[in-house]
Structure formats: C-alpha cells, structure tokens
Fold:
Amino acid sequence: MVPSIEELHQKKLALWTLVLVVLIAGLVIASIIGICVGTISISPGKVFAILTGQITVDPLHPDTDVAIIREVRLPRVLLGAVVGAALSIAGVAMQGVFRNPMASPSVLGISSGAAFGASLAIVLGFSFVSGQFAIPVMAFVFCMATMFLVYGISRTGGIVPVETLLLAGIAVGSLFAALVSFMQFIAEEKLSSVVFWLMGGLNQATWGQLIIVTPLIALGSVIIFWYARDLNLMTIGEDHASSLGVETQKVILRLMVATSLVVAAAVSVSGVIGFVGLIIPHMIRLMVGPDHRILMPASILAGASFMIITDALARILMAPSEMPVGILTALIGAPFFLYLLRRRRHMMGW
Amino acid sequence: MVATRLKVQGVEFGYKSVRVLDGVGFEAEAGEVIGVLGPNGSGKTTLLKCMNKALKPRLGSVLVDDREVSDLTRKEIAREMGVVPQNSGVNFPFTALEIVLMGRGPSLGRFQTEGDEDLRIVKRSMKATDVLELAARPMTELSGGEKQRVIIARALAQCPKILLLDEPTLHLDVNHQLEIMDIVRHLAREQRLTVVMVSHDLNLAARYCDKLILLLEGKVLAAGKVEEVLTSENMERVFKIRGSVQYDANVNTWTVSILGALPRQNEIGGDSD
Structure:
C-alpha cells in the first residue's frame, strides 16, 4: 500500500520537528560540555550555579571558577557556536548556489581569500573604519572577491561543473595562501599576531568579538534563509527556478554577498577553520533530505554543536597545551571530503 | 467576447549582432496543442524562453488573455505558464512529491507552508500524469520518462493556463514518448490548457498537435494545420529531407513518411555565416 500524499507530507513535517528538537537538545548538551571541560574542569552543577547567579564573586574568598566561566569559557563556547553555525550555513548556501554538493568556504579557497584580507588589515594596521572592524571589513571584501572569482572562472553555460569548480578553488586558494605567506614575510614585529590568528582557533575569544560578529552572522543567515525555497528550485536548475518565479540572477548575487558576510565574520575572529561547511550540511542532508527550509536551521544547530565539541576536544586532547581547532576539523573533514568524492557519482548522480 | 488565450506578436530576439528570432508571431486558443518545429538553431527554444520572459525580446509582445507578459513579475508569470524545460537532470535527492509541491511555490507567501488546498492540487496534478505511486521516491532514482511526468505534474500544480514544453520526449523510449504525449493532449482537452511544444520529432508533432509552426532561421516559414505546414516542399527546404504527410485512418492522425535525406550537393541556403 502506497502512503497517501497527505501522510507523506505529515510524516515529513513530523521528521523536521523531531530533528529540530533533537538538535536543540544536542546544542544544549554540547554547550554544557563546552563550559565544563578544559585544563581546569568544572562540574556541571557548579556551572549551573554560577550561570544562574547562585555563586557570585566574593571579594574575601575569590573563586577562580567564576572568572573562568564568565570571562573565558562562556564567550568561547558562544563564539564557537556562532562560528560553527556561520560556516555551516555558508556551506549550505554555497552548495545551493553552485548547484554542487562539494562546495564549501574552505574547499573553494574563499576562507583563504578572507584570511588574506584579514592579515592585510593586521599587518598594514588598517584603521579606516574603527580599529576593531578593520579585520572583518577587509575579510569581507576579499571573501566576496574570491567567491566571484571562483564562480566566474568555473561557471560555463549556466552550470558549474564539479571538476572546474574544485580546480578553480584550489588555484585561487593557493594564490591567497601564498599572499598570506607573503604578508607574514613582511609582517616584521606584527608576525606573531598574524601567525597566532592564522592558526585558527577560538582561544582568543572575548565578549567584544562576540558582540561584533554575532549581528553580522545573524544578518547574513537571515538573508540566506530568506531564499531557502528559491534555493530548492535553483538546485534543480536555473531554468526550472526562473519558470517557477525566481529571479535567479538577483538571488545568486544576494546569496553570494550574504555568504561572504557570514564567512568573513567567522574568519575574522577564528582564522581558517576548514571543512565544517562541508561536513555538517552533508550529514544533515542525509537525515532530512535536500529541502533548504529544514537544511538551513538544522545545519546551523548542528554546526554550532560540532564546533563547540571539537573546540572542547582541542582543549583537552593535549592538555595542558591547546591544539588549534582547525587542525582537528581538517583531520575529520579531509577524509570525509575524500569519501564524498569517491561516492559522489553514486550518491548525487553527477 | 473572449480574448484569445495566447498571442505572440512580432517577437524579435538577438544576441549582439546575431538575430535569433525575427518577427515571430502566432495565436493559440484554450485547449489547443501547438507544435514548434525547425532545425537546430532555428530559434525554437529561444522562442519558448521569450514567451515566459526568461529572455527579453528586443521587439514584439506576448499576451496572455490580452495581458502583456513583459509587464508581469516572475511570480505572476509562473501562475500563468507552467514550463517543462529541456534538461530535467535533478542532482539533489528531492522526492517526487517535493518536486511537485514546488509548483505551488509561486502561489505561496515566502514563509507560508503548503496547506490542504495545495496538497489537493498537487494530488490532482500527480494523478493526471500518473505519478502518485512515485511520491516518496527520490528523483535521482527515477527513469527518464518518470522524471518527465513528475516535472509535468509540477507544471500542472502551478495551475497555469499555458504549458510550455521544450522537447518533452527527448531521450525517452518510444512507449514513454507516446505516454507523455497522450497525457499532454488529454490535459489540453480536459483542462482547456494551451500547450506550446518544441519538438524535433516530426511524426510525434504531426500526430499530436492541432497546429504547427515551422521556424527557419528565426522566421516563421509556415504555420497552420499539420497538412498545410508539413508539405513536401517545406520539409525539403527546412529539414533537407524528402517526405510526405498522410492521414492514417488506423490511428486517426497524420503521419509523416520520410523517404530520405536530400543529396548533399542540393543543400539549399544552408547555415548562415
């Protein structure tokens, strides 16, 4: 007996709700773990007590745990969540726009472009916009330039073939990586701050960074989510999308700008953390299917949890020293990428 | 008096200096199936794209019930015209139901989800092209004919007045070709849809279309009933074949007998440039 249309539709909506509930619960658990774990581990009970204000700073008996949680762990976990969410939704948007499941900010060299912009800002000490914004602004400009470059090179006759896309991404990425090295070479006394930043990580997280990048990422994500249904149509083909009422060129342009905004904001505080935008959308697609209306919120939640957990791992794996979280995501992501490349024809039909 | 469903008037389109369409015009009523024929590069697909504003003609107009298509937004056009594009390669594993539901998009607000009425329309559309039992299957697993039926169902779910089909039977097995065309003609008759179909296949077009339009180098060479358009003379000129069209009483339709290609040295006109 074939289930009726209504049943199928109900089942799908039920699955969407279930997935969202599970992912929200997962994010809460990940956040608690992220706050508890580190060189000094703090029990969940105490974390709860501190966060709810039951333990406050007592000048006579200073409790370092309070300071650790309030000034270090909490901003770090929140920043991790925001960065993970940003990279994931950027991956979703790029895979949709490029109509290609292999696209992601790091694979296509776009993160490198943003990194170059940011290191330019650090080394040359740009301050044309108030100091703290210089890095995100430069990252944004170069991020967008890189994306249009890669897109322009690899698009032929309305489609973006996977081989061309990956090759263009590698070439452009290498170019910017070289330029970043050059910036290090001429950095002189600013070398350490560039290198430190480039390693990729959340160890410098501050409330100040969080306040700057969160609105940017939120804005970009809202724009991307706005076009969720249009992206569904565009993954089938621009002909299809335009015959169903989508202004494809306008949508592509806006999505590329919004994606650049999100990636640049993330890169400007965390350096290059690779593969998150590739792994997360794929895993979510396996769970809920390719509909962007669920893929986007689910990827945001999963990306946030993933980043918090990998960052926690980066803190404890080699304790007391801390490894850059970008190394961990690459260790997980690169084999996953190769696996996708092997399976792609079978799975995706291209 | 009732306005003519579809009027195409003096449509001219070109890329830079190359003129692809040159003063193309025709009219179609509700319930008619119109076939657009012509050799490669004669402007068939371009004409279809000019009709739904996917391309903007330099001159001329397209009117649906006396409303200018160029004045409508993309979304409004999508409520008037359903399109089945040539290449229906779906790379992401959407289910057939999800694909057909997309046809309701133009009628919904941005964050509105599909309601009962939408599901009813989708069900009716899927029934019409006989794809209800494929609803839960991913598009990536369907055969060419099944995919095409799903895409036609999606176009129907837009509740359009006009259906534009670009080579709907390309790459399909013969039985699936006939199946698709039977569905299309049935829809035209039952739902009073105006169908404009671009085709390569003379026999299929002769068999299923009420009227034919023959394009050559962007101009309408002939238009009208099958037997008036597919004359031996026209076939020779446009397709460089010797052939004739007869009424086949067995199937109650016109069929084209193709005797052979013209010898090469007799090539008339040929490709420009």
About this structure: DSSP finds nine helices and twelve strands in chain B.
